Amino acid sequence: MAELLQHVLTGLGTGASYALVGLGIALIVQVTGVINFAQGDFVMLGALSFALLAGAGVHPVLAAAISVAGAMAVGALVNLAVIAPARGADHTRLIILTIGASIVIQGTALVAVGTKARFTPDFTPGELRLAGVNLPLQYLWIGGAAAVMVTGVWLLLTRTLLGRAMRAVAMDPAASRLVGISPRRMSFAVFTLAALLGGIGGVMLAPIQAPDPQIGLALGLKGFTAAVVGGLDNPAGAVAGGLLIGVLEGLAAGYLPSGYKDAIVYGLLIAVLLTRPTGLLRTIAVARV
Amino acid sequence: MTADTMRHEGRVRADRLRATARLLLPYAVFLAILLLVPAVFTRVPLYTMGNGVYMAILAIAALGLVPLTGFAGQISLGQAAFFGTGAYFSAILTVKSGLPATPAAILGMATAGAAAYLFGRYLFRVSGHYLALATLGLGLVLTIVASQLEITGGTAGVVGVPSLAPFGVELFDDVSYYYLVAAVLLVAVVVVDGLVRSWLGRSLTAVGDAPHAAASSGIDIAARKRLAFVVAAVLAAAAGSLYAHWAAYVDHHTMDLLLSLQLLIIATVGGIRTVWGPVVGAFVVVTLLQVSQELFPELSERVGGQAEIVLYGLALILVLLFLPKGLAGWASDVIQRLTRARAGADEGGAR
Fold first, then answer.
1. What pLDDT shows up at residue B304?
2. Which residues lie closer than 8 Å to B46 by C-beta, 6 or more apart?
3. How far is the C-alpha of A194 from the C-alpha of A189, rounded, in Å?
4. Could B307 and A269 be called an inter-chain contact, meaning their C-beta atoms sit closer than 8 Å?
5. d(CA B286, CA B319)
6. How many angstroms separate the Cα of B138 from the Cα of each of A6, A184, B84, B144, B146?
7. Which domains are seen in chain A, by residue range?
8. How many Å apart are CA B69 and CA B281, to the nearest integer?
9. Which residues 200-229 of B are in CB contact (within 8 Å) with A?
10. What is the mean predicted confidence (pLDDT) over A123-149?
11. Which is deepest, A81, A183, B70, B241, by most CB within 10 Å?
């Protein structure tokens, strides 16, 4: 029983970071209609630059701030240099463009720092002992940061003008243009916001993932799975989906031969796409041509 | 018969002849280029004949993306999974079951096609870009499974895939193997070109331009997308079989995401809405690879041969932003503009 609880709790911890990645993907899909294949690389940038900076002796708080700002800058750059110039492009072309951006980000990181994994200590050493479970404190950090960020995004979307403008573009770009909201600016804002979420998720994950430039793919895929499980354009669903696949992965790591851990998550992605493409967590499927 | 009608009939016949010539001319030029490749690649120091074989194999594997991505607007990140399916079927069936190469390859293509059909049955029920995500997942799952199973040889792979001997002629070196691969490429180009010029291409264009109008005029959108996906899978599997017999060795890296990305880049950089796109794209990508290995040999060594991918990614972004029809699409636009300008000048002169 304690063992099961252990796997579920560590799963929830990593799942919280997948939730942030998935949330970023869902927000971009909702506002722009584009699946952003570079989202995992935002996470990689946050994690890798934090590990490098902290390893070089920079104060962790400063290192975290620089890493998150760096990820945001790259997110903004992807929008300005790759998405915005493609005027009149259909979604297929925009998605391929984000794939290109992902390739360039990952490749540049590889050329810059090599393939080596970078280890970095937990934010606060120690474990939480509770009912026979030893949970490293880092998992609490991840969970706490994710909770703060998800609440922040919810407040942004419901309580601020920017958030309402984003939602307006998500509902009807043409009509929002009529009332003076620029879909291009909202696209810029949502890419930056998604990169912020990814960057924070990356910083939080750095101590338990030992990042290298190639982790973006796996993390991005977990984000996609989270978002797809929740219904690709449903931000709340993406958060729930992230937690769900975190737990699933925790259980797979505990009870299945290693090596299949990732296959389980990707298998879930395929299974959901084949059976319930609009998401497990959506009760009413929206019929579309 | 008056002189007037005779002149008219003659003009009609000449027009028809010109139309046929215009249709066949690109194929003739392509055949000539294919035949010239061995002479050039064995003399120019930048290339080896192996590059020629590899280009043709990549072009075959990327060709199916023209109907699928260019016309149906669906992105596949799983071409390598089907490529690997073809490669593993050829390797396992010829090495372990002693089957001849042709039925082994056909079984691989059939399996890939059937898998794509089943995938398509479920995936295309709703619109959206789910195929990109599902094929990405499929590729990664199959890579993991292939590296774990016993029949695929685990991470060691399957070695000793026999070389091919069509009609009793053993293809022992890259030059002779090139002619086989080039022949398959030529056939594949003609078939896919025929497909996208036929009702399939027209209805897929309609689906892309106005899905609701297409559906209401009786086009089964899901079935068309599915057919495009099956064609892409079968061609990738065929390329995989050719690769297995050429490399004589297959492991789980044949299913690598890197290959799927490379194939998408090849098709997009070359031109996603014309069959000449993947051919041009394969040439460009392999050339970029050769040039970058020539210029920065120590760099590609340090990062495990992945430095080139930055170049590919940049090429992809630049082409999509500035030449959205790809290099081949852009070139055909230029040629069309030139011929139209010349025709205009001729007419002006006649008057």
1. 59
2. B287, B290, B291, B294
3. 9
4. no
5. 16
6. 30, 34, 12, 10, 12
7. 2-117+134-275 (1.10.3470)
8. 15
9. 208, 211-212, 215, 221
10. 83
11. B241
Is residue B237 within 8 A of residue B84, CB to CB? The reply is no
Are B207 and B224 contacting, i.e. CB atoms less than 8 angstroms apart? yes
Overall average pLDDT of the A35-54 stretch: 94
* Residue B73 backbone dihedrals phi, psi, to 5 degrees: 70, 20
User: pLDDT category, B189, cuts 50, 70, 90?
Assistant: very high
Residue A289 has pLDDT above 80, yes or no: no
Q: Is the pLDDT of residue B5 over 90?
A: no
d(CA A114, CA A214): 10
B257: nearest CA in chain A?
A217
* Whether the predicted pLDDT of B113 surpasses 90: yes
* pLDDT score at B157: 80
For the stretch B248-269, what's the b/e string if a residue is b when 16 or more beta carbons lie within 10 angstroms of its beta carbon?
A: ebbbbebbbbebbbbbbbbbbb
- Reported in sequence order, the residue ranges of chain B that DSSP labels E, i.e. its strands, are 158-159, 249-250
Q: What are phi and psi of A140, to 5 degrees?
A: -70, -40
Domain ranges of chain B: 30-256
Nearest to B77 by CA among A114, A248, A220, A86: A220
Beta strands A133-136; B158-159: pairing state: unpaired
Alpha-carbon distance B142 to B152, whole Å? 11
CB contact (8 A) between residue B136 and residue A85:
no
The answer, yes or no, to whether residue A134 has pLDDT greater than 90, is: no
Determine the distance in angstroms separating the CA of A273 from the nearest CA of chain B, rounded to an integer.
Answer: 7
A83 token code pair: 């998405």
Q: What percent of chain A has pLDDT over 70?
A: 96
How are beta strands B249-250 and B158-159 bridged, if at all? antiparallel
DSSP state of B129: S
Is A169 within 8 Å of A34 (Cβ atoms)? no
Q: What angle do CA B84, B88, B89 make, to 5 degrees?
A: 115
- Contact yes or no for B313 and A107 at CB 8 A: yes
A270 touches chain B (CB under 8 A): yes
Tell me the two tokens of residue A220.
Answer: 């991005």
The residue to which tokens 């896919």 are assigned = B192
CA torsion A16-A17-A23-A29 (nearest 10°) is -140
CA A197/CA A202 separation, integer angstroms: 9
> How many other CB atoms sit within 10 Å of the CB of residue B31?
14
Residue B226 near residue B215, CB atoms below 8 Å:
no
- Read off the pLDDT band of B283 (50, 70, 90): very high
B330: enclosing H helix or E strand: helix B326-350
CA separation for the pair B19, A147 (Å, rounded): 67
